[in-house]
Amino acid sequence: MRPDADGRRVERALLIDADDTLWENNVYYLRCQARFQEYMASLGCDREAAAAMLDRVERETIPTMGYGPDGYIAALGVACERLLSDGHGTSVPPEVIEGARVLGELVRNMPMVVIPDVEATLAALRQSSELVLVTKGDSVVQRAKLDRSGLARYFDAVYVVAEKDAAVYRRIAAERGLHPRHTWMVGNSPKSDINPAIEAGLGAILVPHDHTWTAEVQEIERPDLVLTLERFADLLPFFGVE
Questions:
Q1: Domain of 126: which CATH number?
Q2: Structural domain of 131
Q3: Which of 54, 71, 116, 194 is most exposed by smallest CB count within 10 Å?
Q4: DSSP secondary structure string for all residues of 135-148
């Protein structure tokens, strides 16, 4: 336990994921996918093939464009072109490709829906916890979502990173002077939030989300070291916070 600059008696540090932990995110990508499938079906393509192609192209796009709306919108256009050219180099009209791309505007301008009880939970946790937001993606996009959420005031620091891995968690812990025994990563993604946090020697708390992106689903390597909570608000009784 240690006092901080605000006079709080800090008992623990919580590194907290953003998308689909604090606010809804992937559900809007799923809606875009459904619209893409409908659009491609109207052009004579199989719906399941359209979904599979979009998923494949989206993952290919990440190394060069990162996570977020821009890469996803680009992937919609590329997936459309590949499906219609059918691997034979058939020319696809630009307006048809643009018709696929515009479907992604929903994720560029998605509504901000904070998950129930998140704000009250953060407010209660802040009394005795150092709260650090750790999210991956485009810094401008993620910080804008944080501002729109109204949750920024609860966090002592914000990290927007290209990827979440053990090295990133170790770096954050070192920069913040956090003791691994009193530090937990909280999030919905086994791949980005749970497994690398455990590898880094931190605690890990999984708060599952019904619409976690399939690319973030991964077998938990050390389930014996992971706490699973049904809701974000369940952090309060776990840590004995009223």
A1: 3.40.50.1000
A2: 2-24+113-239
A3: 116
A4: EES-HHHHHHHHHH
